[in-house]
Amino acid sequence: MRRHAAMAVGGAISLALLAISLLALVWTPYPPTAIDIAHRLAAPSAAHWLGTDPLGRDVLSVLIAGGHNSLAVAVVAVGAGLVAGVPLGLLAGRRGGVVDDLLMRGADLMFAFPALLTAVIITALAGPGAMNAALAIGIFNVPVFARLTRGATRALGERDFVRAAQLLGRHELAIGRVHILPNIAALLVVQASTQFALAILAEAGLSYVGLGTQPPAPSWGRMLNDAQTYIFTAPRLAIFPGLAIMAAVLGLNLLGDGLRDFLDPRLRRI
Amino acid sequence: MIPYLGGRLVVLAVTLFAAAAVVFLVLDVLPGDPAALILGVNARPDTLAALHHAMGLDRPAAWRFLAWLGGMLAGDFGDSFTYHVPIAGLIADRVGVSLPLALLAIALSTAIAIPTGVFAAAKRGKPADTLTMAAAQIGVAVPNFWLGLLLILVFSVKLAWLPASGFPGWAGGIWPGLRALLLPALALALPQAAILARVTRSAMLETMGEDYMRTALAKGVSRRAALWRHAVPNALIPVVTILGLQFSFLLAGTIIIENVFTLPGLGRLVFQAIAGRDLIVVQDLVVLLAGSVIVVNFLVDIAYVLIDPRLRAQGGR
Amino acid sequence: MTGWARLGLGIAGIVFACAGPALAQAKDTLTLGMVLEPPGLDPTAGAAAAIREVVYANVFEGLTRIDGEGHVVPGLAASWTMSPDGKTYRFALRPHVTFHDGTQFDCAIVKFSFDRARAPDSTNAQKEIFEPIAAIDCPEPETAVITLKRPDADFLYGLGWGDAVMVAPQTAAQNQTTPIGTGPFRFTRWVKGDRVELARYAGYWGQAARLSAVTFKFIADPAAAAAALLAGDIDAFGNFPAPEILPQLRADSRFAVVIGATEGKTLLALNNARKPFDDIRVRRALAYAIDRRALVTATMSGAARIIGSHYTPNDPGFIDLAATYPYDPARAKALLAEAGIAPGTRFTLALPPPPYARRGGEVIAAMLQEVGLNVDLVPMEWATWLDQVFKRSDFDMTIIAHTEPRDLAIYARDHYYFNYHNAAFQSLFARYRETTDPAAGIDLLRQMQRQLATDEPNVFLYVLPKIGVWNAHLHGLWSNDPIPANDVTGVYWGN
Fold it and tell me: Is B137 on the interface with A (CB under 8 A)?
């Protein structure tokens, strides 16, 4: 029962996050990049619920727009992992042998490199920016999804309906698409929610050190970077984006955990 | 076990070489001239050329790559462009900050997580368990660098108990150094402890359901004794796995935390070296960091054997 | 010893570090904060201001030196005379001057130092200073005679720069890591990534320093710098990096806050060779479009002086031209329309790493948006900026502070990244460079400032402030930075 409550909370937070981030496309209380030096560093008020930042921008608006950008980076990062990782996992799982060995050793190797550190080096070298950050984070999602897909594919490969399709001479691509993917989709969704949360944290970290999202585009990590010099005079500037990151990650994790438990019996059967 | 490790060693050496080659290549095509950075905006072309020659940058890239690689194999890490000293010493100094920081964070994380996890498992289903696990859920979601900012705000600015930044070095004694590392280590450790506590709890719950626990309890061993003597050691295997993963995570985490607390560790050196186009330092660091993670993975493998009686009996896998 | 072994030993050394006696904090030591760590400690082999901020006047001295007011005063040359044609300088060198390793200073050192700086393989970042030198002669050990190819109005001033300090033949090559000069402080230790330590030199030729030891501590992060200051870990910041925290520091009686000027002329630099910036109407429109007061409020918490030309109040002949292009968006729009710039035209603005550029870029982009121009911000590392903007001149606009003192010369160059070419200015500069009459020199300096304000090749914004924050009991630090330095030779603790 409690599990369901946690999952509901996680789902609600994740949905709210999505809704707000979509809303940012069409509306924020103020334009998030509109500067108003005369009203800089204003305390929270009816006009500016969370106050204004050092350039007089409305913090709530920047937070909403920043959430959109942070989420966009996470979507690309997880999407890249799925798009590259799942086919590789299918290939390894279905082919086996040398292909499998090579791909999985490759995955092992990638796990040997600390993801965040490597992402820092990649973005520093390739040039800072949201897209590079997303790809630098995404690279490390590839082996995650590849491994997961491979394991599940191999397990499914022993099952009668896959064997039958194979005996009927169905093309490997068709087997993957029709018989395997739908059966591991739930598994992938669960993993994706976890990776999504990690991607949000990674984006925040990269932007915080100046390698992720670049001005004038706001992001939660960038807001924290900007806020750092104001930690003595306006600590709220550092507190709000931090809370936003925390809430987003918490929501996604709760959702992921909940889904995992919910799907557990089915996952075990694979 | 030995052939297995040996085989991995070869593969990893090849990877390190590939990583080194890629980094060298990227640095080579990257815009930015280390000599121009050193000489600034008033430098004359002939001065730049003279410095290029002095730095060896007028040699072909392939020559420089092989020279660097050969140097590494012979134990010469090269000299830093910006500090003008051998890089080995430079990195050793930084390791002296980052490694203690990561170890302290691991120690803190373990010290917090294992008792918490065991406690939660023992109280399974009770409010204490629910609360602890809710706290852990929140802990997992906290970005460590933000936690670092908050810790500075509370313990350095408001309470003035601990230094907000900087590192006095170890020459003045262990204590001042530890004091400087305490807040950053805590910022790194808490989110990791939250993960570890959850793993410990579920590992405990699994082992508590095993036959030997029931046997022990049936034989009249107290619940507490059974917990610590039988359940905890068996639950350690997944915990060690996570710890191993966390080490590489923490090493990477230090890169950002060092920025928050301005610690002169490896992370700052990476940033400085990239910004200053201190090319050889960047190359050395990438190879060393990847190498250190690989060593830790080895140690984790060995730890498995030591902890798991079944593996020990087989003498490997 | 191989690198691997050294690495191992280094780690072992840390693990077994013994507790040494903690240094007692007496009232004759100083811990001074700096933002950037110097890349090496030899001011004759690198342009970084951070090098000078540690060693200038403290460790190394030149024949002349620049004081806190920007005046040229005697250094290792007690006095000098100039021939009427302005081509021969005769320096009377101070006697009994020794380097920190005991080496005697005399004319041979002068000859060595300058010959080294102007040699073909020299890596001196300001080789221009030595370019006019024809010959250096030593009629006797305590006299140096320098002959020039042509008169040079800035020669004595240039000799006061860090790039022209005296170095000894035996130690010159090691100055990057262990600087040995003639100053009142000798180098003791450099903990890389953290601090440089200096101690009083007992054999100093002049007035001994009142501080027994000075530590320069490097704190790159502004918030950390503020925390270190508030916690008392640091006694002084010659140039405090976080203007945001000034109100709090001002309210704290423990600190003295002294706002002065550096030589950092902050510009919105324009590529004059690229359309439409070759059109003076466009450049002036940009100048009218930028509310520099608001910009200074947003980026420097108001603590910076607005300028209207490429010159600072620290320097001789300064005239205030800040009112040349007052904030007037309507006029900016009219000028843009006149020049045929359609609303919505896009430009790029390259931003190097410092906050003045990154934060300033966001503000300026918003201000230009107000007059109908769309600006794409392009943040870049220094290395990239130097390559793309500075070297290849591949940019529309950039924000940059020119920190070199008295550098009007860059507007007279044939090739410089912003591509300003005006024969009138070049002739003014040529006349100034060869003038030996101070009054005529001042007049020419003024004319050059006016010419630049008229042409507005770049939008002149403000002088980077020198935000001095130090313990209220500390005396003798500079209030302005006429050249990059943290001259602590006269610093002492009062009560």
Answer: yes
- Cβ separation C298–A37 shorter than 8 A: yes
Task: Please tell me the class of the C26-40+177-261+466-493 domain.
Answer: alpha beta
Number of B–C residue contacts, CB under 8 Å: 202
Closest approach of B138 to chain A, Cα-based (Å): 6
Number of structural domains found in chain A? 1
What phi and psi values does residue C379 have, to the nearest 5 degrees?
A: -70, 140
Smallest CA–CA distance, residue C141 to chain B, in Å, is 30
**What residue type is assigned to position C140 of the chain?**
E
Q: In this predicted model, what pLDDT tens digit does every residue of B27-79 receive, in sequence order?
A: 888 778 888 888 888 888 889 999 999 888 899 989 999 999 898 888 888 88
**Looking at domain C60-170, does it have CATH number 3.40.50.280?**
no
Amino acid at the residue A8? A
B251/A contact by beta carbon, under 8 A: yes
In eight-state DSSP terms, residue C457 is: S
Domain with A221 in it: 5-27+55-267
Q: Establish, for the pair of chains A and C, how many residue pairs have beta carbons separated by less than 8 Å.
A: 63
Dihedral sign, Cα of residue A26, residue A27, residue A30, residue A32: negative
Q: Tell me whether residue A202 is in a domain.
A: yes
**Mutation for testing the B interface, residue in C229, C254, C386, C410 having most B CBs under 10 Å:** C386
Predicted TM-score (pTM) of the model is 0.84
Q: Please state whether beta strands C29-34 and C236-237 pair in parallel, antiparallel, or not at all (unpaired).
A: parallel
DSSP for B197-230? HHHHHHHHHHHHTSHHHHHHHHTT--HHHHIIII
Domains along chain B with CATH numbers: 2-73 (no CATH), 90-313 (1.10.3720.10)
| Distance in angstroms (rounded) separating the CA atoms of residues C87 and C106 | 22
Note the CATH architecture for domain C264-464: Roll (3.10)
List pLDDT tens digits, range A130-182. 888 999 999 989 999 998 999 888 888 777 788 888 888 778 778 877 788 88
CATH of residue A172: 1.10.3720.10
For residue C415, pLDDT beyond 50: yes
Query: pLDDT tens for residues C130-161?
Result: 999 999 999 999 999 999 999 998 999 999 99
DSSP state of A107: H
ipTM of the complex: 0.84
